[in-house]
Each structure stands twice: as structure tokens, then as C-alpha cells.
Write a structure and sequence with these properties.
By secondary structure, the protein is mainly α. About 85% of the residues lie in helices and about 0% in strands. The two termini are about 35 Å apart.
Length: about 475
């Protein structure tokens, strides 16, 4: 499909067909990405036991920060690119892409060096205990090295999706996920089915992730450089940067960055609260929380893929001034994502202990029962998460950074942080799990109000035009 054909597709194809066309590849990619994170944790648990899962939980904030960096630049530049694409402004499209790539290289390289230098202080900040810090050191070092290809891949994935090539973006993430799943047992286990393997344990999981991320990045970079791409990348200008556009990318992408960085902060806060309120060794409770975060990612990321499929439609049609298509696409997608999140809530409530059974090498009854109960409580708030994610992403695609930022801050900071300290002080560990429910429900209800307000504004615009 040529760039002109993709432009016509974004502006004229039936909204429902277009939503599925762009969202399904993103959903598959998100599912694969979540699956490899889950498999990582499963293999580590089967090889090294439940306590080793804590290493992944301790390293999770760093992975969220890497994700935040790539998504901030990717979504910010993709929003600029989509709107310019909608009005046919090739110069702005080119500057958005090259500025994004230069920013990614500079920031990710700097953070990699700083992360490796200050590795131990980071682990202590993130809540490492005496029994899991060794595992965390083995894992996080290689994860820091993977920052450059991972963040680069995230940026190009968003830009590739913005030009309507959702299939290429999907394949890039699938390559990374499948390679990681294949390499994990080879690098982690000492032997399998009588075959001698590398037996590197937690370190092997991190090395497999590094290789997989690098291959996924190489694939999407190859296609972004092709003549079929509308990104117009020229590596000779990789250090030519538009300072003004840096600010615009930061402003638009900041809500996503803050949402994910605050996600990392919340993991740190929860780990520290667990250290404070756990009745015995906190390491097992940190491992329980580590499993919960991986399961939440696995269950909910495909829903976020639907939002990623919607963003190019919103950005393009907002730039083209096609308000009717904006209303249709947003309403249809919101219906789908709400059904999905309520369904995931029900599944989790019913099968939470069964999920935890998968992560226990020795069928530890305490680990399974305690983890299952905590996950069941947290899942009660899943139903309204879709509204938060949807409205923040819609405002980003439209370039309305203030509203997107407010919604991003609402759950992750304004509500969660004070609730976590109040409820944990009152109810101990149960208070930590209840914080998720209350914060998700309140933020969701406020996001519902934003949705109805925005649809009303769109309809007023239509009446004005008529």
C-alpha cells in the first residue's frame, strides 16, 4: 500500500473496519509482548523458585521507565506526524521523525550509562531485600543494556503505526516476543528433556530479553528505511534536531511518560510498604506483587493495543477536521475496550488462585492462597480502567496535552499515593491491595465525565459547521 493509499484509508474507510484493521495488529503485538513478560517470570520461578520472582519485581520499575521513555517520544512524535499526514505537510512529517530518533538515541544512551553506574543504589531504592538483591543484580544489568534497542523500537513502532502500517509494527513486536520465548528456556535452564542447556538462571532471562529486543528493533528499522515508508528517514541527518519540536514532542508525550513513570514510582512505593507491613519475610510478598504486575500486564495490555490502533485514526481525522469520524471511532472503540476490561475483571476474580498455581515451583499453599486473594481484590477495579486509558490517549492524539496529563496523573498520583499510605496504615497489606480498587474506580468515573464532555464538544462543532 502506498503512502497516498494509506492516507485515503485513514480518512475514508468505514470506521469499524478501520478500527479493527489498525487495532488487531496492535492487540496481537501487545498480547505477544505481555506473553513474553509472563513467560520470563514463569521460567524464572520454575528454575529458581518463588523468591527469584522478586528480582523481576524489583527490576520492573526500570522496565516501566524504559517503556515510558520510548512511548513518550513515540506517541508525541506520532501525534505530530499523524496530524501533519492528515493535512499533507511532508516537511513537518520528516522533522518529527528525525527529531524523535535523535532524542531516543541521546536519552537512552545516557540512561543506560547512569543505570549501570548506579545499579546497586537503584535496587535498594526499589525495595530489594537481602534474599533477592543478588537475583536482581544479575537481571537488571543486562536489562539496562537493552534500553537503547527497546526504546528505539517503541518509537518506530508508534511512528510506523501512525503512517498506517500497523502490520509492520505488529511483526516487530512479535519477533521480539517469540525470540524471547524461544531463547528463555535455552538460557535459563541447565537442561531440558535430557538436552544440556546454558543454565544461566535469572541472568539468562535478561540476556534473552536483550537479544530479542535488538532483533525486533532491527526488523522495524529496516522497514522504516524502505522506500514504501512515509517516514522519510535519512540517517545522514540523525544528529540534525529541531529544538522547537523537541518541546512539542515532550508536551504531547508527557502524559504517557508520567503515567508509566508514576507506575514505576507506585511499584517502588508498594514494595516499600510491603517491606513495612509484611508480617514475616517481605521477599515472598514482593514476589506475589511481582506476579500480580506481570499478570495484569498480560491480561490488560491487549486492551491497550486497541487504543494504539485508535490513535492514528483520531490524530489523522482531527488534523483533517473530520469531526463526525472522530465521534464514530471514539464511541465504537470505547464500547469495545469497556467490554474487554470488565471481562478481564470477571476472569481474574474467578481464576486468581489458578493463575498463581502456575508460578509456584513446589505448589506452595501460602504463596498460592495469599497471592490469589490479593489479585482477586485488585481485579475488582479493572472495569473502568479503559476509560482512563482511552481518554488520555485521545487527548494526546489531538495534541491536548493538559487534559491528557491530568487524566494520567489522576489515578497514578493524585489518588493512588495518598490512598496507599492511608489504607495501608489502617488495614496493613489488605489496604495496599484495596488502594488499587478505589483509585481505579474513582479515576474511571472521572474519565467517564471527560468522555461525555468531549463528545458534547464534538457535536457542538458539527452543529456550528452546519
Amino acid at each position: 500500500m502506498t503512502a497516498q493509499e494509506r492516507s485515503e484509508m485513514l480518512g475514508t474507510m468505514d470506521v469499524k473496519k478501520l478500527t479493527f484493521k489498525l487495532a488487531i495488529p496492535a492487540i496481537i503485538a501487545m498480547f505477544a509482548n505481555a506473553l513474553y513478560n509472563l513467560v520470563d517470570t514463569l521460567f524464572v520461578a520454575w528454575d529458581s523458585g518463588e523468591i527469584a520472582i522478586g528480582a523481576l519485581a524489583i527490576a520492573f520499575p526500570v522496565q516501566l521507565i524504559i517503556l515510558a521513555l520510548g512511548l513518550m517520544i513515540g506517541i508525541g512524535s506520532a501525534s505530530i506526524f499523524s496530524r501533519a499526514y492528515g493535512r499533507g505537510d511532508e516537511e513537518t512529517m520528516k522533522r518529527a521523525v528525525m527529531t524523535a530518533l535523535t532524542m531516543t538515541l541521546a536519552i537512552s544512551s545516557t540512561l543506560t550509562v547512569l543505570g549501570l553506574v548506579f545499579l546497586n543504589p537503584l535496587l535498594q531504592l526499589f525495595g530489594a531485600t537481602a534474599s533477592n538483591i543478588g537475583f536482581a543484580q544479575d537481571y537488571l544489568g543486562f536489562i539496562m543494556i537493552s534500553l537503547i534497542p527497546y526504546s528505539g523500537s517503541l518509537v518506530l513502532t508508534n511512528l510506523t503505526r501512525a503512517e498506517g502500517r500497523a502490520g509492520i509494527a505488529m511483526k516487530s513486536l512479535l519477533i521480539g516476543a517469540l525470540v524471547n520465548i524461544i531463547l528463555d528456556p535455552i538460557f535459563i535452564f541447565p537442561s531440558l528433556f535430557g538436552v544440556q542447556l546454558l543454565g544461566l538462571g535469572v541472568t539468562g532471562a535478561a540476556i534473552a530479553t536483550l537479544i530479542a529486543k535488538t532483533l525486533g528493533f532491527a526488523y522495524i528499522l529496516y522497514h522504516a528505511l524502505s522506500k514504501e515508508s512515509a517516514l522519510m528517514i535519512n540517517l545522514r541527518y540523525i544528529f540534525k534536531i529541531d529544538v522547537k519540536m523537541i518541546g512539542e514532542i515532550f508536551v504531547i508525550g508527557m502524559p504517557t511518560f508520567i503515567r508509566n513513570v508514576l507506575g514505576a514510582v507506585l511499584v517502588i512505593i508498594v514494595n516499600q510498604l510491603i517491606n513495612q507491613y509484611a508480617p514475616n519475610d517481605p521477599a515472598i510478598y514482593i514476589s506475589i506483587y511481582g506476579v500480580i504486575t506481570r499478570l495484569i500486564t498480560f491480561l490488560l495490555l491487549p486492551g491497550i493495543g486497541l487504543v494504539q490502533g485508535l490513535q492514528p485514526i483520531v490524530g489523522f481525522n482531527f488534523g483533517a477536521g473530520n469531526t463526525q469520524r472522530l465521534i464514530q471511532s471514539i464511541t465504537f472503540s470505547l464500547t469495545l475496550i469497556t467490554v474487554y476490561f470488565f471481562t478481564m475483571s470477571g476472569i481474574t476474580v474467578l481464576f486468581s488462585e489458578s493463575f498463581f498455581t502456575l508460578f509456584s515451583r513446589d505448589a506452595d499453599a501460602f504463596f498460592i492462597a495469599t497471592g490469589g486473594r490479593a489479585f482477586r481484590i485488585i481485579a475488582l477495579g479493572f472495569g473502568l480502567i479503559g476509560f482512563q486509558i482511552m481518554m488520555s490517549s485521545i487527548y494526546q492524539a489531538m495534541g491536548d496535552a493538559k487534559r491528557a496529563l491530568f487524566i494520567a496523573l489522576l489515578r497514578q498520583f493524585i489518588l493512588f499515593v495518598p490512598l496507599a499510605f492511608i489504607l495501608s496504615n489502617w488495614l496493613g497489606l489488605d489496604g495496599i491491595w484495596l488502594t488499587f480498587v478505589v483509585a481505579d474506580a474513582l479515576a474511571g468515573l472521572i474519565s467517564v465525565a471527560f468522555y461525555f464532555h468531549q463528545i458534547k464538544q464534538f457535536k457542538l462543532q458539527l452543529q456550528t459547521v452546519v
